[in-house]
Amino acid sequence: MAADTKERILNVAERFFADRGFPATSLRDLTSEASVNIASVNYHFGSKEALLAAVLERRLRPVNARRLELLDAIESAAGNGTPNAEDVIRAFLSPPFQKRQEWGAAGDNFLRLLGRIHSETNEEFRATFFQQFEGVFRRFGQALQRALPHLDATDVGWRMLFLVGSMAFTMAWGDSFASIGPGANKDPDDMLESLIQYAAAGMASPVPIGVPVGLAQKGRTS
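Structure (tokenized):
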């Protein structure tokens, strides 16, 4: 019974946070929809912020566990050599798309929540989201530096941020875009493969040469 109550709270919270955003979701509305009292939320989660963390962790923990499992296999195969950058990127991108198929319709709320996290300026959303990725980012950042030695840690960090943004946008908006744009009827596996190829090319691209000072000043004054 307690497990059912906890799951019901998580399901409602996921939907409300996705539809209304974190600040606009009140515990009173949430508990009313879930047919529980606020004491139940406090018992299972402790606070509204902890509830948001639990909503994210429920979906992201198995995704990140699979990512690390795939990365372990890649690094083990590479030994003291250099891992293949595309393989590393595939290990990062594939698990959430695979899990999305397992989630089915129940995952739609979470995808909308991801869209909010990446498009809104709410720092509570973002800080809680990135807490779920700290260890994963570190491991994949190290692997990508080995695979792409022309990049330093700063380059890799920024490009991983671009990678996450592309992934989240594709997951949250890909279906809507496919219904109105040139990607209509694109198979989900083909969509993932296109994203992997796009990300691999961007991640491996040369480090840009700095803009000449004179041109930069001209741009600011024009």
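The radius of gyration is 20 Å. DSSP finds eleven helices and no strands in the chain.
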